[in-house]
Amino acid sequence: MTSQAGRPAPAGAGGLGDRGGHADATYLLDSAGPAAPPRDNGELVFAAPWESRAFGVALALHDAGRIDWEDFRQSLIAEIRDWEAAHPSGEGWNYYERWLRALERVVSGKGLVGTEDLRARLAVLVSRPAGHDHGGAGNDQPHEHHAHH
Amino acid sequence: MTSPAEHIDPALRVEALASLLAERGLIDEATIENFVKTYEQSVGPMNGAKVVAKAWTDPEYRARLLADGTGAIAELGFKGPQGEHIVALENTPTTHHVVVCTLCSCYPWPVLGLPPSWYKDPAYRSRMVREPRRVLREFGLDLDDSVEIAVHDSSSEVRYMVLPERPAGTEDATEEELAALVTRDAMVGVANVAAP
């Protein structure tokens, strides 16, 4: 069995098959048959917590009427197209990185969060001490509103 | 235009975005968590498997499914984002359907959940269109040359699911037993349903 965590081999390498396997630990842990489905066929829906967060943020924004789904989809299509043009080998592909970038574009395009605000917040997060937990769902930033808004 | 921080850990980029949006009252944590939980735990290919099993055992339902996929699927309570225009494609002994989304990985979420990683991969999206017989063989599905392969490109207008052929020897199986045989891969069209 191939590793379920690995991405399929690039085009032409013949690596697309052999991924319906049920031999991985996740499948065994989680059940048999159609009762455990998003994970059925041996594959997790999300490979990392941030992927599920990026997914959830997009759906929440759409649900709140803040973004138009077709705008987001077009942004995603453009992101994927540009990435593939720049990476003909397919090496380094991650779907939710494209998703996140598309989301950042739509959010700034709509004026919901400006690029500079995003940069400033990222600088704060990046400078946090090593070992600081940033993987979970928590938003441990202070909740005051920014002075310039 | 470059990303504000394409080289930065995506986990931090998500948190930066989510925290700013939440502080401005544009989204809330509970809604994000709820969507994630729903798609991790509740919505998945078991929904589609129930649709397929019902179509195998109820000819009238099968006819409704093929005429109006979205409507017939909603009869079983499956609806929601990315399920607005679902078309069911019926496999036959002479035609095998397979689904791809070449542009962005459109997928019928209400019946199949979120797509597996290979469905989103550039290799699958480009190669399935160009050389479907070979790609299917790599998935372990070796179709006879006499079987025509129809590749369907999902889009925002139409999202496809495959109604696989009912395996031989399942004449006495109940709808529930049949549903347990149906896999996600069969409903994307990269596998057939095997007899128990």
Q: What average pLDDT do the residues of chain B reach?
A: 92
Class derived from helix and strand content of chain A: mainly alpha
Q: List the strand order in the largest sheet of chain B.
A: 1-4
Question: Using only CA atoms, what is the Rg of chain B?
Answer: 19 Å
Question: Alpha-carbon distance between the termini of chain B?
Answer: 54 Å
Shape of chain A: globular
The CATH topology assignment of the largest domain in chain B is Nitrile Hydratase, Chain A
Q: Identify the CATH homologous superfamily of the largest domain in chain B.
A: Nitrile hydratase alpha /Thiocyanate hydrolase gamma
In the predicted model, the low-confidence regions of chain B spanning at least 5 consecutive residues are none
Helix/strand order of chain B? HHHHHEEHHHHEEHH
Number of individual domains of chain A? 2
Number of strands of chain A: 0
What is the number of beta strands of chain B?
A: 4
Helix share bin of chain B: 40-55%
Note the total helix count of chain A. Answer: 5
The N- and C-terminal alpha carbons of chain A lie at a distance of 53 Å
Largest sheet of chain A: none
Q: What is the overall shape of chain B?
A: globular
